[in-house]
Amino acid sequence: MKLFDVYPVNDINIVKAQGSYVWDDTGIKYLDMYGGHAVISIGHTHPHWVKKIEDQLEKIAFYSNSIKIPLQQELADKLGMLSGKENYQLFLCNSGAEANENALKLASFHNGRKKIVAFSKSFHGRTSLAVSATDNRSIIAPVNETENVVFLPFNDGETLQKYFEENGKEVCAVIVEGIQGVGGIRVASKQFLQIIRKLCSQYDAVFIADSVQDGYGRTGKFYAHDYAEIEADIYTMAKGMGNGFPIGAISISPKIAPKHFMLGTTFGGNHLACAAAIAVLEVMEKESLMKNAEEVGNYLMSEIAKIVELKNVRGKGLMIGFDVPEELKNLKKNLLYKHKIFTGEAKPNVIRLLPSLGLTKKEARIFLNALVEEISFLHAQNEKTSVSY
Ligand SMILES: Cc1ncc(COP(=O)(O)O)c(C=O)c1O
Q: How far is the CA of 307 from the centre of ligand 1 (A)?
């Protein structure tokens, strides 16, 4: 049987990982500035996380949601405390798309409406409604097409205000990332998030904060939306939540009341996933990883901003993006194959950094040195090429 070929892959087989490093099957060590796509929050194979999963595995890995699973309440208590949302309610699922799908569905159950407002360059996942709210025509199948989603320009409060004035009573929910990830690290402005909050309250629409990529402490605050000093009605999360163990969730405002069977899942909230997620929160707290993300992120950003060739350095904490000019287009590839450093990208020419929240300044320096060295190399090479013409 062949694998269904949906991913362009690097020819590298990672067989071992620890902290901010991974090793391939030939023993080569790589610095991971990509965190397996923002998933590695507390560091690869963190010993506390491994132990907690191993211990749980020996007791029970799974039973269905037809019984009490006290680990779910333990996770809810810890998450409520660390995110500053102790009065919110937790629903557990398995991925980011599923979290957004459930959030949108719940919003519609709550106010009985259908219209979803999403924004240009948004990415919310690949399930039916989540992908419909994603601003990328090429991944929306004909069956996912719906008139229930409208796309408005990102960070444009005036257009949003006008839309609400004309259609506010029909709006079910507004879904927005605090920092667009796949869209190229585009930070939602404080004013924009505050206007969304105001309009959602005024028109009884549900404010959904997609925190799948930018949440879980990555930006230095638990949710990136916290920078705007607002409270969303639903926060969706996944990636960093399990540090690689698949788990997703939605954190729901007390004003939205549950009813039996309105949401449900077979695997969501299983014993093993909860153990992994509790371990993540324990390590985040014990090792002050949000503070570290902020400090090391600020350091990285200020150092990258000194490199004149790289433009438009932006982000928060350890969610950073910068534009790479066309003449340095091999930068990402060379960082990987020559300097053994994984980075992320966003089309057409953005490098995205999403490392473990435990990244040290020393590790950040290794990346910065490689960046400077490779840029000089590419420059020299470009000059040589232009001379020989
Ligand atoms: C902001 C955001 N929302 C949702 C998703 C979908 O998450 P998943 O791939 O776990 O379904 C992603 C994935 O990249 C994302 O970045």
A: 31
- Residue-wise pLDDT for 262-315, tens only, equals 999 999 999 999 999 999 999 999 999 999 999 999 999 999 999 999 999 999
Is the CB–ligand 1 distance for residue 177 below 6 Å?
Answer: yes
Closest by CA position to 124, among listed 92, 152, 159, 99:
99
How far apart, in Å, are the Cα atoms of 315 and each of 178, 310, 339, 381?
A: 10, 14, 24, 30
Cα 304 to ligand 1 centroid, rounded to whole Å: 26
**CA 123 – ligand 1 centroid, Å:** 7
> Helices 157-167 and 190-203: crossing angle, nearest 10°?
10
Q: What phi and psi values does residue 280 have, to the nearest 5 degrees? A: -60, -50
Closest CA to 201 of 223, 233, 167, 225: 233
Q: For 182-197, how does the pLDDT look when each residue is reduced to its tens digit (9 = 90+)?
A: 999 999 999 999 999 9
Ligand 1, closest atom to CA 126?
Answer: 11
Q: How many CB atoms lie within 10 A of CB 240?
A: 28
For residue 78 the two structure tokens come to: 């810890």
Q: Which residues of 304-337 are buried (b: 16+ CB within 10 A; e: fewer)?
A: beeeebbeebbbbbbbbbbbbeeebeebbebbbe
Residue whose Cα lies nearest atom 10 of ligand 1: it is: 96
Cα separation, 332 vs 33, whole angstroms: 11
